[in-house]
Amino acid sequence: MPRPSSASSRAQAGITDYIRTRRLSPGDALPSEAALCDALGFSRTSVREAIQVLSSLDIVEVRHGHGTYVSAMSLDPLIQGLVLRISLDSARSVATLNDVVDLRSALDHSLAGELAAAWSSRDAAELYAIVSDMTAEHAAGRPFAEQDRAFHRALLAPVSNTLIVELAGALWDVHMAVLPTLGIPMPADIDITIRTHARIVDVLRAGDVAGYHAAVDEHYAPLRRAIGQAAAGSTGV
After folding, report:
1. 10: exposed, middle or buried (Cβ count in 10 Å: 0-12, 13-18, 19+)
2. pLDDT tens digits for 36-63?
3. 210 vs 219: CA distance, rounded Å
4. What is the pLDDT of residues 47-103, one digit of tens each?
5. Closest alpha carbon to 135 in 125, 152, 147, 127
6. CA 182 to CA 91: how far, in whole Å?
7. Disulfide engineering: 170 pairs with which of 71, 75, 150, 206, CB 3.0-4.6 Å?
8. Separation CA 205–CA 212 (nearest Å)
């Protein structure tokens, strides 16, 4: 691969190579700026600029007065980038939100077998309690996003691929951040989505993979209808 051309970009690559080759883990300290300059052969200005960029990408964490550390490397930059992209691309914003929903749905479907195997032998009391709280919040006319996020986080807790879990959470965050900015109202049949959370738990406890696939489709149906209506309205159809 070609190396980045600017000194700052090359310093970024040098620092990430340093983290990788030394197998540093989140929370591990990096050398001081001066030591990195000596080790990597870059100027202090280039190293400082590189650290600022890597910090914005959540690759390193600068703790003022303490030093620079390898960060947990969350997907926050991905979330922020996608939200901004959808917000700026007004001509395709609704279509891109639909793409996000498609990807969320695809991830959920891809986990059917693993989730059925896991939840058929697990205590699902926490999931049912979250659904109950969600139902109560909606009945009281209050938003239930917090409960919805908690449900999906708890549902995916047994999944072995942590990157899939993080990506699913990131897409949920993108979805919920973008939805109000596009003026898409709460689907009139949102009750279906709320009830389907409980159905998802029921079928997984029964080890019913086919039932899970059907429940996932039912879960997204009201949102897909709302997005479809918004798309039709924006095109004058």
Report:
1. middle
2. 999 999 999 999 999 999 988 888 999 9
3. 14
4. 999 999 998 888 899 998 889 999 887 777 778 888 888 777 767 888 888 899 999
5. 147
6. 11
7. 75
8. 10
Q: Looking at the chain, how many residues does it have?
A: 237
Cβ contacts of 10 within 8 Å, gap of 6 or more: 3, 4, 42, 46
Distance, in Å, from the CA atom of 179 to the CA atom of 32, rounded to the nearest integer, reads 43
Residues forming a β-bridge with 62:
68
Secondary structure element (H or E) that encloses residue 96, with its range = helix 93-110
What secondary structure, in 3-state letters, does 117-173 show?
A: HHHCCCCCHHHHHHHHHHHHHHHCCCCCHHHHHHHHHHHCCCCCCHHHHHHHHHHHH
Encoded tokens for 51:
């650290």
Which pTM was predicted?
0.73
Beta carbons of 117 and 212 less than 8 angstroms apart: no
Assess contact for 100 and 59: CB atoms under 8 A: no
